[in-house]
Amino acid sequence: MWRLAARVLLGTKVHPLTQRLLAGAANLQCCWWGTVRGTHTGYMSAGIWKVEAPDAEHLIRVQWEDGSESCYPCVWLRDNCQCPHCFLHSAKARKLLFEDLDVDIVAKKVTLTDRKKVSITWPDEHTSEYEAEWLKKRCFSEAARAEMQEDLFLPEHQYWGSDLQLPKMPFEEIIYDDESAYKWLCTLKKMGVVLLTGAAARQGELVKLGHRIGFLRLTFYGPTWQVQDKADANNVAYTTGKLCFHTDYPVLQHPPGVQFLHCIKQTATGGESEIVDGFHAANKLKHQNPQAYQILTSTAVDYTDVGVDYCDFAVQGKQRIIDVDYRGQAIRINFNNATRDTVFDIPAEEVRPFYAALKEFSDLLNSTEHKFTYKLKPEAKGHVPVLPHSSSSSSRPLTPPLQPLVYSASPLSCTG
Ligand SMILES: [Zn+2]
């Protein structure tokens, strides 16, 4: 079952939902918030006691053997007919054209077979069949929807602060063992950061890791790049100065979901990394200053990035510092002080309140209560830190840093 789950997980689409702010000094940062469409094991086999199509109602009512009841709108049932004419099973995708769907459709005839299958004949004599278990999973009750969403999005989060017990896993196990790969991804999803140990101290290991779960996303800095001190640096990461907590590439419409950094060579002094849980800090801000939180979740901030590297690039973008979902829950942090534009497209009177709100958030990120500091060790074989949740930021070693191979990749965002 583990192998099946891992195969499902590794072979399926995962898209980033959110990000955490990670501040890191040079080592590894990776963040992502993914969602995995996996197997559903929590549902008991479902038997149907009775099915009926109430007159004058555009729905089908199913009574289950356990005494519960589910209602399914006819338009949804017709829309989701699983027959080969309406659904392409090889692609698990709908063939039925939306323009051919009648939103006022009602069932002409409904039959139940062996308490396991519902058949519906539509007014045009088209017939649809639905397995009981398929229907049960898609019940529209609040409880059933919540269970399905939990399966689909693995919503468990573990917020952390300076007391973080950094999750560690052997790199080789991830590469060769499905169960370990599955555990790694689940931990990454839950914690936002995982340290992989024992990778060979050479370039190419991150490519191997990226291909293990998807593909690496190309950026203006090439498929991969080296973080090291460079003359005429085209990125503040290529200097020896300290970086403040940041997430990468907020200028992009789709910022990286996961970033891999590989410490191939560590500096003797300096080289520490700092990471911070941006969601945790965002929740703290929401509690202690709702107005500041409201400003950071609603103000569109201009970002810019111009330079020459893998190619010439000149990009403008807008992001809110804290992205929230439909429930108001933080799902991504978009903060990079280096690429925040001098252009700021808000009224003058709103500027200072914005700065004050951002300062309060920044203070939370930098508090000793929240930030976690560590130093990667190449050791004999090297380290690959993986920060899943989201965002990364920060820091920089005060001396010429290690020379980590940095991957900005969204191997899990394969929805594209
Ligand atoms: Zn059909």
Keywords for this entry:
416 residues, alpha+beta, Double-stranded beta-helix, NE0471 N-terminal domain-like, 2 domains, 6-stranded mixed beta sheet, 3-stranded antiparallel beta sheet, 20 strands, 22% strand, disordered C terminus, binds zinc ion
Task: Provide a descriptive summary of the structure in words.
Pfam families: GBBH-like_N, TauD. One of its GO terms (biological process) is carnitine biosynthetic process. Residues 56-135 form the Gamma-butyrobetaine hydroxylase-like N-terminal domain. The structure is a single chain. The chain has helices spanning 2-10, 74-79, 132-137, 142-153, 171-176, 178-191, 205-213, 278-288, 290-298, 351-366; strands at residues 48-52, 59-64, 69-73, 87-88, 93-94, 109-113, 117-121, 127-131, 168-170, 194-197, 225-226, 258-262, 272-275, 300-308, 312-320, 322-324, 330-333, 372-375, 383-387, 405-409. With 416 residues, the protein is an alpha+beta fold. It folds into 2 domains: 2-36 and 154-409, Double-stranded beta-helix (4-Layer Sandwich); 48-141, 2-Layer Sandwich (NE0471 N-terminal domain-like). The chain has a 6-stranded mixed β-sheet with strand order 9-10-19-12-20-11. Strands 1-2-3 form a 3-stranded antiparallel β-sheet. Helix 1 (2-10) packs across helix 6 (178-191), helix 8 packs across helix 9 (290-298) and helix 8 packs across helix 10 (351-366). The longest helix is centred in the C-terminal third of the chain and has 16 residues, at 351-366. The radius of gyration is 25 Å and the shape is elongated. The two termini are 28 Å apart. The structure holds zinc ion (ZN). Zinc ion (ZN) binds next to loops. Residues 81, 83, 85-86, 126, 128 line the site of zinc ion.
